[in-house]
Amino acid sequence: MSSLLLYKNYNGTVEYSKKDNCLFGKVVGIKSLLSYEGNSVQELEQDFQNTIDEYLADCKERNVEPERPYKGTFNVRISPELHRNIAVYAIEHGKSLNAAVEEAIGNMVRA
Q1: At what angle do helices 97-110 and 80-92 cross, to 10 degrees?
Q2: How far apart are CA 88 and CA 70, in angstroms?
Q3: SS3 (DSSP) at 34
Q4: Where would you tag: which of 36, 45, 87, 100 has the fewest CB atoms within 10 A of its CB?
Q5: Distance separating alpha carbons of residues 88 and 30, to the nearest angstrom
Q6: SS3 107
Q7: Contact in structure between 52 and 34 (CB atoms under 8 Å)
Q8: Max CA-CA distance within the chain?
Q9: 15: Cβ–Cβ under 8 A, 6 or more apart, which residues?
Q10: 91 alpha carbon, distance to own chain's centre
Q11: Which burial class, exposed, middle or buried, applies to 12 when counting CB atoms under 10 A from its CB (0-12, 13-18, 19+)?
Q12: 6 has which bridge partners?
């Protein structure tokens, strides 16, 4: 299982480069490429936080709205059979399709 860093609602990956003998990562959930690195976990976490702070300061300076990760909407492609099954489930339980999918995802990530 991989770990993600979290700072100001932004998540970042943690990876290791054997070639460079360092830790590195990138911010996920946004289109901008924000990367960071460090020789220890503490350095990696600090550079991650500095990267986020610099990104937010740069956006403010340029009067641009920073990208926010995980807006709450996304497209999912599933098989027609699964689509039918979740739609029938939603109807039988008096829910919208979105509510049924949200329930299913919630059950999966809580498990």
Answers
A1: 100
A2: 28
A3: coil
A4: 87
A5: 34
A6: helix
A7: yes
A8: 56
A9: 23, 24, 25
A10: 30
A11: buried
A12: 11
Q: How many residues are there in the chain?
A: 111
Residues of the chain with pLDDT > 90: what percent?
86
- The rounded distance, in Å, linking the Cα atoms of 13 and 6 is 9
Q: Report the run of H or E that residue 49 belongs to, with start and end.
A: helix 41-61
Query: Residue 81 is encoded by which pair of tokens?
Result: 């059979």
Measured distance CA(66)–CA(75) in Å, rounded = 22
What are 57-110's pLDDT values in tens digits?
999 999 999 999 888 888 889 999 999 999 999 999 999 999 999 999 999 998
What token pair was written down for 27? 């911010």
Q: Look up residue 63 and give its two tokens.
A: 């009067």
Dihedral sign for Cα atoms in the order 77, 82, 88, 94: negative
* Assigned token pair, 108: 């999966």
